[in-house]
């Protein structure tokens, strides 16, 4: 069984690579670990920068819609309230990104490493239940 905090520590050790370990691929990895389904199998490794990510997935211009599509593939239901292990699209300032709820904060992978955002500074735009049970 996947462990949330072990997974977040792996995120710290793995460099950000578009199409492999960007903010959405680490969430797809998490869903794969917990649910046994890779929601991003068809796009994994198919893009290498922001422009190609947009061309292949549409995530940059439509993150909630795209995340909803991939979440549905894995059988994830959209929820109003996140529980530990759930995934979301959050907004911090003008930026929208994929994040995981650790029970106290939103955690996301960025080109600068792992970003932890207190809920006061991050607004979830849509959230999906992964079904993680510690």
Outline the structure in words.
The chain is α+β, with helices and mostly antiparallel strands and 134 residues long. The chain has one domain: endopeptidase fold (from Nostoc punctiforme), CATH 3.90.1720. The protein contains four helices and six strands.
Total number of helical segments?
Answer: 4
Strand order of the largest sheet: 1-6-2-3-4-5
Query: Structural class given helices, strands, pairing?
Result: alpha+beta
The fraction of residues assigned to DSSP E strands is 15-25%
How many E strands? 6
In short:
By secondary structure, the protein is of the alpha+beta class. The chain has helices spanning 4-13, 23-35, 50-57, 63-73, and strands at residues 77-79, 87-92, 95-101, 106-110, 113-117, 123-129. The longest helix is centred in the N-terminal third of the chain and has 13 residues, at 23-35.
Provide the descriptors you would attach to this structure in a database record.
6-stranded antiparallel beta sheet, alpha+beta, 134 residues, 6 strands, endopeptidase fold (from Nostoc punctiforme), single chain
Task: Give the arrangement of secondary structure elements.
Blueprint: H1 4-13, H2 23-35, H3 50-57, H4 63-73, E1 77-79, E2 87-92, E3 95-101, E4 106-110, E5 113-117, E6 123-129
